[in-house]
Amino acid sequence: MRRSASLLFAGLLASTAFGVNAENLDHAALARLTGQINQVTDHAASGDTSVESLLPLLTERLHGIAPSVLVDAPAFVTIEGKGGLHTIPVDFMLAQLRLQTGARFSADIGRALTDANAPALFIRGGTITLKELAATAATQFPGAIEQNGETWTANWPIVIWSDSGLVIEDSDRLELSTRAGAFVLNAGLLQVNNGSISGSPESNDGLPEFKPFIVTAMSGALQAKKAKFGNLGFPGSGSTSGISIIGAALLPAKMRSFFVESAFDRVSSVDLLDTHNVLIARNQFRDADGPAIAVKGVNSARILSNIVTGSRQAQGINIQNRSSDIEIAHNLVLGNRGSGIFLANGVRDIKVSANLLSGNGRGGISVVRGTCVRLIDNIVVANRQVGIKIRASDQLALSQNQLINNSGPGISVIEQGPKAALTIDGNQFIANRSGLHGGSASQVALSGNDFAGQSPILLDGEFASYVPQLLRISTADATAQPFIIHANEQSSARTDCQSGS
Fold it and tell me: Does the model's pTM come out above 0.90?
């Protein structure tokens, strides 16, 4: 019965030009859009691709995804003085790493070391380049670093102390030996400028799941431009899961970390943990095991104009653990196993705008227990569950998003608290399994949304009974008061997104 009624209402909507920008997308137009997104996805999954190189494909409906201004890399920081090379016992260094990262550090790393008695290379007292590091190690610590053409393979872990820096540049390549259990601990400054860091392809006998990783902790920073990172990190191990930047209240970072115009291929995850003021812009992330970008407990980060494809176990972009002041804009998030963008667990003051999300296994965007989140001008197409899912969240605004051909509802609102409020305005719903779904929802304010292309189901779940009211306002003035579903009491306290209270 509901299906028949929904088909009737869809027909009525088509005749009443429902919404301020009512537009149906016929089968031919939907097929063209699908073909266009397939082209974008194919190019995005290839090597050496950037949002800038895809601009010729970001036309028609996709034109808003292209940024009007491309973000430039901040200037590299310089640490004065010439760094010296020493050694430090691995056990001492691992103890320091565990102290800084706590439960996020795998206790089994020692099993990966070929020689548990071998020390780590220890950089102190200034800046050293990779070439200088390799030359010094060759004379003072034979076997620590081996050269093979333009690639230097580190067999010992490398520690960059807080008063020093390691610079990799000019197409220099640092390979961390998987067999020997090598990795990098950076408490100072690691810069990769047109160079690369990767794990070697062989396996580790002592710890088969081991892959090299880079940890920046204490007061350190990692700065990369036009860099390449590959084959780093093993999943499920926190700070050892690829590239991590870990802050600490008593040792705040003195320099800004950033990744710009760089490529991450088979890096299990780029983790930002309890740090601040990080820029991730114009990069390409391919085939991560965990979330390609994971942000936890971070204050202030900008994630702009990145390509994120093929995360095999989790989300494309994952923001959690009370992170705040985060901007996610102009990214292509395509074909990841989990949600394209996942925001959860106390996040607030998040803006997600002008992103393309398609082909993601758990939906386009999910917000769980978030506050003061704005989802604006995103194109959410052909994801394998919900287009946008809102759960147990408050003071969210969903505006001007295009929700097209998703396997579940275009927008789903579930498990809202009794005082929660949500605004849904100016969105387009086209050819989703259903338009707007509700389950245990609280106040939802609808205005100026376009359902002309949505059939057969407009409103679903506990919202289904509101279809007649929605139809009655279909020809109303766009400036009219919003249509409120499940209105809260006016006396209910509201979260103030401006003051944070």
Answer: yes
